[in-house]
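Hi C.,

You asked whether I'd gotten around to modeling the 141-residue construct. I have! Everything is below, sequence then structure, no commentary in between.
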Amino acid sequence: METKNRTAITIEATVKAPVEKVWEYFNGPEHIVNWAFASEDWHAPKATNDLRVDGQFSTTMAAKDGSFSFDFGGVYTAVIEHKLIEYTLGDGRKVKVTFTSQGNETKVVETFEAEDTHSIEMQRGGWQAILDNFKKYTETK
């Protein structure tokens, strides 16, 4: 099997909420369906999450007009409550998410391996838009 060096992309957001709430909203399927999309013309009609090492997760992301949808999923490789999540996507790319408590705020940093189809800028923008949507949802609920 060929090992490919992939570009790592990092995005981040500081959420005005304690780490316990941020963790719950980031990982609870009942919350994921409310934020796991990059723009208002998309939505996440379904999410499952077995948050443990070797557990699987899947989120369906779909255009609201029904023209396109895909499942975003993978398997967890590390989980440290309120601190760290690492997983491998279905295509083999790796993702690391850290949660740093800063009192009543939480810094969320995601580093993911880029795929080969879309530009680095497009991938960074899409993932950042989803994280920004998560921040907005968590801060207003």
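If it helps when you're writing up: The mean pLDDT is 95.

Thanks,
B.
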